[in-house]
């Protein structure tokens, strides 16, 4: 399994590190436009190999896409992150040009690749890759819901004062502060609905803290977060590499599913060797459906800016 990660910044490097540590890929190519930057990050990461016990070979490249040839999975993290007070949507002006050029260069050398889009505004960037390339829909996957769900589980465990490993839950909808939909009704603690343990008020606090999870970290760090985003991407790449058929909420092109068309939006999907193996249909209640419609409106408005 050869994986290319474009953008050797905070998220790209974290993603390469987690992929290597999990030891399922033979090769990770880190590519950046900044001269020597990816080479430096790759060398630094390779010097952790004997300490962390992995055999994955990490190579750093400055903008030479021929070195990415025949990648099974390509991850796009290139672009600018948000600063405190900014929304993800404000990044579109710069990131759209970068994502379009990067995806086209990747496909030139890896025509059969699966692309995972991370750069923000992610739902719109995933849509842009659909519109500007000829990759089939199962091979273009936006990463947002996997991260938002991990943040949701963190907040749930905090409220329950229990271990995160006991908690399950999912966030669907658009990857934005206003668009994401933490499914509190379906979240469980060891198989029992969390509503058995948490009051409505507490659950709504969890929901709100999850929605602003990225903004909270951006305020603390001065830029957007990288450990959990990198871990979320690596978990998705692992599901594809090992054909696990695990379910993740991902931003995928909808063609009638959940009642939407011509939009990339976060819904549960099965990930395996073909990328998106299946879009999973879950029954949403009326309130959740209405929130999903509002979320889609928000994403469409950003898509219109393209
Ligand atoms: N989808 C998500 O859940 C999620 C989570 C966190 C961050 N993000 C997004 O990921 C992106 C990266 O965030 P970051 O914190 O790693 O930023 P960063 O600034 O640390 O890294 C971005 C890297 O991209 C490189 N780059 C810029 N243009 C390029 C090009 N044309 N070709 C190759 N490399 C190029 C830069 O040199 C830089 O090293 C941002 O858009 C951020 O908003 C998304």
Automatic annotation (TrEMBL):
Residues 1-142 form the Lactate/malate dehydrogenase N-terminal domain. Belongs to the LDH/MDH superfamily. Its EC number is 1.1.1.37. One of its GO terms (molecular function) is L-malate dehydrogenase (NAD+) activity. Residues 147-301 form the Lactate/malate dehydrogenase C-terminal domain. NCBIfam families: MalateDH_bact (TIGR01763), PRK06223.1 (NF004863). Keywords: NAD, Oxidoreductase, Tricarboxylic acid cycle. Signal peptide: none annotated. CDD domains: LDH-like_MDH. The keyword ATP-binding does not apply. This is Malate dehydrogenase. It holds the Pfam family Ldh_1_N. PROSITE patterns: PROKAR_LIPOPROTEIN. It comes from Mariniflexile gromovii.
